[in-house]
Amino acid sequence: HSFTLLAARSTCLNITWVGGYSYLYEPLWWVGMITMVVGEVANFVAYAFAPAILVTPLGALSIIISAVLAHVMLREKLHIFGILGCVLCVVGSTTIVLHAPQERQIESVTEVWGLATEPAFMCYVGVVLAIVALLVFKFVPLYGQTHVMVYIGVCSLVGSISVMSVKALGIALKLTFSGTNQLIYPQTWAFSMVVISCIITQMNYLNKALDTFNTAVVSPIYYTMFTSLTILASVIMFKDWDRQNPTQIVTEMCGVVTIFSGTFLLHKTKDMADGLLNSSSFRLPTISSARSFKQTDEYSEGVPLRSSDSFRSLH
């Protein structure tokens, strides 16, 4: 996943944005996608043996790897605040690991299906599908190229359902390999179809976001929304918090917030110029430099990679 984001960013830095699916013509994107598939297979195995509330936040470790690879591949400098962000991610991940709930013992995929069809989770799925439909059919055509939250919202909402389905499918395969065949149940194949549909949707809109906006903006926002919604879905479906006391729950949430803080700090500071802090600490900026800094800051906050004029020229 780390390499995929770097590959997408490197691709955007070397081509002019032309919209649609232009990234499909870049070999580096395909290399990143292959590594992402390998990483997702490992994630798949993890979800079969551990609760989603533990596995998903640990994805922050990929952000640390991304910082190191960006330093090597993209020549990005890792400043002191970036190092602090990495440390916060490690501390938060350690906190979650130490206080994570025990994995729920499930004997059959039909038991998972029963959890997925309970009224509480069905209500969650209904709300998610309604919001996704609203975003896709109303907001994507109008604001998809100018507001980063539109694409990321679709990815995160669909992703929370895909993780629950991936976990269900992983449990079914784990039980099958241990001698209890779960492939005979239609629920296993139903979960498989949900996984395929959700992953295709996620990849489509995540790549649109990466193709349109700065990776430094997309990555932390997507990670935060995806992790938060996945934890919410896991708590509703698998009732993870029912097996924990309030102290453990609060500690876990503190760990998650610590990871979020480290993630935003790392991405916010990784493009900082070497002398920016020193120069700004000892002299007031001129009007021209203030305007230049404002324009740069606006660009980094999620302005599309192409200008509005180039957008009009496409039509």
Automatic annotation (TrEMBL):
Keyword Lyase in annotation: no
Entry keyword Isomerase: no
Residue intervals passing through the bilayer:
53-74, 80-100, 121-143, 149-171, 183-205, 217-238
How does this chain sit within the bilayer?
A: Multi-pass membrane protein
* Primary localisation category: membrane
Q: Which GO terms describe its cellular component?
A: early endosome; plasma membrane
Pfam families (UniProt xref)? Mg_trans_NIPA (PF05653)
The family database entries (InterPro entries) matched by this protein are listed as: EmrE-like, Mg_trans_NIPA
Alphabetically sorted, this entry's keywords are: Cell membrane, Endosome, Ion transport, Magnesium, Membrane, Transmembrane, Transmembrane helix, Transport
Subcellular compartments: Cell membrane; Early endosome; Membrane
GO MF, one example = magnesium ion transmembrane transporter activity
Database matches in PANTHER family: MAGNESIUM TRANSPORTER NIPA3-RELATED (PTHR12570:SF89), PTHR12570
Instruction: Tell me how this protein assembles.
Output: Homodimer.
Q: What family is reported?
A: Belongs to the NIPA (TC 2.A.7) family.
- Functional summary from the UniProt entry: Acts as a Mg(2+) transporter. Can also transport other divalent cations such as Fe(2+), Sr(2+), Ba(2+), Mn(2+) and Co(2+) but to a much less extent than Mg(2+).
Protein's name according to its UniProt entry: Probable magnesium transporter
